[in-house]
Amino acid sequence: MSSLPLTIMALVSTPWCRAAEDGIPEFLKRSIILQTFGVKFDHPCQDVENVVIPPFIPPESVQTTLEKYPLTGRRDIWAFFRGKMEVHPKNISGRYYSKKVRTVIWRKYSGDPRFYLRRHRFAGYQSEIARSVFCLCPLGWAPWSPRLVESIALGCVPVIIADGIRLPFPTAVRWSDISLTVAEKDVADLGRLLDHVAASNLSAIQKNLWAPDVRRALLFNDRVQEGDATWHVLSALAQKLGRSSRTVRLSNQ
């Protein structure tokens, strides 16, 4: 770091964005921020140099789940979501949380047998992801969620419902080939949209999704591996600092 006296690389989470609304501290203006929060529209979180990174999911938990539920195994859940739908009495009928997206999903599809929707925590939820064809990834308070990485790592096609989201490592992960994007305004039509994909190009999406390099690119390993999430973070930083990604050298020593 001695050669980069004006650059601070900070690993931060979404709450710093709220603080940024009151003014970005001077030291952050000279920093490159690694953050899970990424959007394509104007936002205080995006007013400093940044790299969007995936949230951390333990690779060990993914590997353990895949040993029990292989990628190409039977997927008996068609569309899956586990998480908050309507929360806190102050958010009347989900009016504010998730911009009503999750509320619409629950109200329209909770009675549809094709949709496996659950509102409560379950320690073994990764097994549900591994058994699912489509995994719904609607926005909550923020557009991103760890469930997006878990879905990809466990071979479930992520259905991203978060307008304007900026996804990590777009040059390494061809998001349009491995996921579906549904506009927030179209969430009530989700069933028909998934039917269309299932009848047309689902097998092609799954083939792309199950490629080992896709899963590798979004997981942080204890020891850095070429092509894993840490490797892509270093490559992105090298490019922002005006260096060729070829200068990134990793060692397991």
From TrEMBL:
Signal peptide as annotated in the record: 1-19
Molecular function per GO: glycosyltransferase activity
One Pfam family here: Exostosin_GT47
Domain of life: Eukaryota
InterPro entries: Exostosin (IPR004263), Exostosin_GT47 (IPR040911)
Listed GO biological process terms: glucuronoxylan biosynthetic process
Keywords: Glycosyltransferase, Golgi apparatus, Signal, Signal-anchor, Transferase, Transmembrane
Protein name: Exostosin GT47 domain-containing protein
Organism, scientific name: Salix udensis
Source taxonomy: Eukaryota, Viridiplantae, Streptophyta, Embryophyta, Tracheophyta
